[in-house]
Amino acid sequence: MVKPQPTSEFNAHNVSSANVDRLVAALDAQDSADGVRRLRAWARAAVAVRPGEVVVDVGSGTGSVARTLAAAVTAEGSALGIEPNPGLRALAEQRAREAGSAARFVAGDASALPLPDASVDVVWCERVLQHLAEPERAVEEFARVLRPGGRVVLLDSDWATTVLHPGDPDTVAALTSGALAAAANPYAGRKLVGQLSAAGLVVDDRGSQALLQDHASVAWPLVRMLGESAVRRGLIDAAQRDRLYEELTEAAALGALHMSVTMFGAVAHRSAQKSPSAT
């Protein structure tokens, strides 16, 4: 019997050469989002990467974060991106070459990192755990590869914080429930601190940032995907869906639209005195 795979195209089990362009477009859009940039800036300040350190970006995608980390560790250190999708990995390598970055990229899975124990100073993992059915295994892997005193950054969305306004409350609730069904681990953001602690790591700081869509433009691909899903599941009918589309369009024309989801972050370290439970 074939085990059903998580729905997300970013999950390692769903790697396909056919969807690379779509994934690149989504990742590039996220890179340019103000909320993502602000939360990354907070995380960089909190983790304080230093020259000469060994850093790993788990689920490195197009390599934008790995290139930033490579610049921070300078030529004295090393920055490695771990990415299961060969198409994304090839693009990351190309962009690193074009940028003159020393960042390197290898194949790998968050739950089985191709790294020895206690070999890394900093692990960065952004918007990966939401795609994993067993995120705890990945956090235990992060703890395993960290050196004593090593730090980890986890940034992830919590899809239960999705807000869409205006619209009939029941219709909006039907649409936003689709965001929960689209991720293997939709409550990832709220679980970060507990997972780090369970892996034997010491939490140092926490942060959050609402990722806001343009208040004057409806993100139609996302909204229509959620709307069609709600109709197929029988949560609303076509008339309710179309009325919501009209209300969102009218609100956008007035600059009164609100669409958001909150992303959370946590920074922790491995104690020099106490080994993580995963080792």
Summed up:
The chain is of the alpha/beta class.
Question: How would you portray this structure in words?
Answer:
The protein has helices at 20-32, 34-47, 64-73, 86-99, 135-145, 169-181, 188-198, 220-232, 238-253, and strands at 54-58, 78-82, 104-106, 120-126, 146-165, 202-212, 258-269. The chain is α/β, with parallel strands linked by helices. The protein has a single domain (12-268), classed as Rossmann fold, CATH 3.40.50.150. Helix 5 links the parallel strand 4 and strand 5 (146-165). Helix 5 crosses helix 7 and helix 6 packs across helix 8. The chain is elongated and about 60 Å long.
Topology record:
Blueprint: H1 20-32, H2 34-47, E1 54-58, H3 64-73, E2 78-82, H4 86-99, E3 104-106, E4 120-126, H5 135-145, E5 146-165, H6 169-181, H7 188-198, E6 202-212, H8 220-232, H9 238-253, E7 258-269
Parallel strand pairs: 1-2, 1-4, 2-3, 4-5
Antiparallel strand pairs: 5-7, 6-7
Helix pairs in contact: 5-7, 6-8
Q: Which features characterize this protein?
A:
elongated, 9 helices, 279 residues, Rossmann fold, alpha/beta, disordered N terminus
Task: Kindly report the oligomeric state of this protein.
Answer: single chain
Q: Which stretches are poorly predicted, pLDDT < 50 over at least 5 residues? A: 1-9
Q: Taking strands numbered 1, 2, ... along the chain, how are they ordered across the largest sheet?
A: 3-2-1-4-5-7-6
Query: What best-fitting shape do the alpha-carbon axes yield?
Result: elongated
Number of strands: 7
Q: Report the sheet-strand fraction.
A: 15-25%
Supply the CATH superfamily name.
Answer: Vaccinia Virus protein VP39
Structural class assignment: alpha/beta
As for the number of domains, it is 1
Could you spell the SSE succession in H and E letters? HHEHEHEEHEHHEHHE
What is the CATH top level name? Alpha Beta
First CA to last CA: what distance? 33 Å
Q: How many helices does DSSP assign?
A: 9
CATH-derived architecture: 3-Layer(aba) Sandwich
As a percent range, the share of helical residues equals 40-55%
CATH topology tier name: Rossmann fold
Q: How much is the radius of gyration in Å?
A: 20 Å
Mean pLDDT, all residues: 92
Tell me the major beta sheet: 7 strands, mixed
